[in-house]
Amino acid sequence: MTAIGNMLWRIGDILDFDEQLAWTREAGFDGVGFHAAPGTPGQWRGLEPTECDSARRTVVREALSSFAFTEIHAPFRIHLTGDSLPAGLEELAPILQFAADLGVSVVTVHADLTDAEGPAWLGPMAELDGLAAEARTIVVLEIVEGFEAVQGWELDRIRVNLDVGHMYDQARVQCLAPYGGIGGLIRHLGPTLAHLHLHDTDGVTDHCEIGTGIVDFEAIAAALSAIEYRRGVTMEMNPTRCSPDGMRRGLARLRTVFSEAGGS
After folding, report:
1. Are 220 and 192 spatial neighbours (Cβ–Cβ below 8 Å)?
2. The model scores a pTM over 0.90
3. Domain total of the chain
4. Contact indicator for 227, 191 with CB cutoff of 8 Å
5. Crossing angle of helices 244-260/217-226, nearest 10°?
6. In DSSP terms, which residues pair with 208 in a beta bridge?
7. Which of 28, 102, 182, 260 has its CA 20 to 30 A from that of 115?
8. CATH code, domain with 159
């Protein structure tokens, strides 16, 4: 069955990184994700690479080793566009080294590929592919369009992270129409899809408890089964909109939906 992880932001009132990690393990999640950033005091907490010396990295790597997969979310300030590629790659280099030190299997990076059909992207993306290979990880671009560009690059370690909640945003839902819905998009992506972020939305407010909004998780599960998806997914809950109990309910619901779809 698809491995399901939990993105660490804040869990209830828990801000401490290690306590969030322990809660995620005790709640029965298969994987874990976290932001390579310090977070905002009193609101959410990540893990800042510059604050982690070699001893701390060893401790965290050992703590992460019990999970089936681990994900690092690159800082929000890194948002790859045609204009920001050189600077973005420079900023990503220490993040990928951090991933290598911690044994992280996937690194999520926000990107805007509206101008990615031209040749200007391929060289930098090939360079990023090489950095990912050195770090023994995969870089997944969190995008809402431009999927064909990633497919066209044919790079082993540059894939897509489909944030399904964002695809249902009122301003973006039209991006699903050419594919016949979320399931059709997943089938279209096939092996280019290497990770997903799962949360629910009413079309305006997102990162809500699984099953409380309009996202068609049954269609997602059926499509993942159809493409024989074998990688992980990360639940991405806003802690002000989803309680710890809601996170547990979401995990249970996803496991049921995945199982009924064929145990992809």
Report:
1. no
2. yes
3. 1
4. yes
5. 50
6. 200
7. 182
8. 3.20.20.150
